[in-house]
Amino acid sequence: MIEIDKQIFREMVSFYGDAFHLPPLAAKIYAYLIFDFERNGVSFDEFVEVFAASKSSVSSNLNLLLNLNIIKDYNKIDERKRTFVMNEKYMKIRFEEIALKMERELAILNKLKDFRKPETVEEREKFCFYCKLFEKNIFTIKESISQL
Fold first, then answer.
1. CA angle 12, 70, 32 (to 5 degrees)
2. Predicted TM-score of the model (pTM)
3. Residue 139 belongs to domain spanning
4. Which of 34, 121, 122, 130 makes a 20 to 30 Å CA pair with 18?
5. Which of 87, 104, 130 is the last residue of a domain?
6. What is the CA 39 to chain-centroid distance, rounded?
7. Are residues 76 and 106 in the same domain?
8. Residue 33: CA atoms inside 13 Å, Cβ hemisphere, count?
9. Are 4 and 12 in contact (CB under 8 A)?
10. Which of 40, 69, 87 is the last residue of a domain?
11. CA distance linking residue 65 with residue 87, whole number of Å
């Protein structure tokens, strides 16, 4: 069993459930894996025991996390059962997706600007500020990703 801080665990479950739109058990599994600091991995049976959940519930929530690339699984050489760990590349994947969404929104906004043709100086300045904010954040995210 992994040692956890219950208060931090509860905060993480709430945050990751909201941030990643995860069902409660999936958020608990992800938060629990974050406490696996040595990255030894957690077995399916340990999840069932720790969360007192049915095997089918644990299985479906693990599959959800695997499909979202939030966690990874592997088999130890001498064992049949799978072990689960956090995907250390997930933060990079997550921020790449954020940058892509921002780029798409910026492209749509530029098309909207071309269609609408803001008439007043105030409208043009406001739109220009908004686009620069997007561009600056996209640049910062991409620069940070290259360092991960």
1. 40
2. 0.77
3. 91-147
4. 130
5. 87
6. 18
7. no
8. 25
9. no
10. 87
11. 10
Give yes or no: residues 10 and 74 share one domain: yes
Question: What letter represents residue 33's amino acid?
Answer: L
Whole-angstrom distance, CA of residue 143 vs CA of residue 23: 32
CA-CA distance, 37 to 30, in Å (whole number)?
13
d(CA 108, CA 59) in angstroms, rounded, equals 39
Does residue 131 lie within any of the structural domains? Answer: yes
146: amino acid identity, one letter:
S
Residues 83, 13 within the same domain: yes
CA 71 and chain centroid, separation:
10
Ordered per-residue pLDDT tens for the chain, 148 residues: 899 999 999 999 999 999 889 999 999 999 999 999 999 999 999 999 999 999 999 999 999 999 999 999 998 777 788 899 999 888 888 899 999 999 999 999 889 888 888 778 888 888 889 999 999 999 999 999 888 7
Instruction: Give phi and psi for 38, each to the nearest 5.
Output: -85, -5
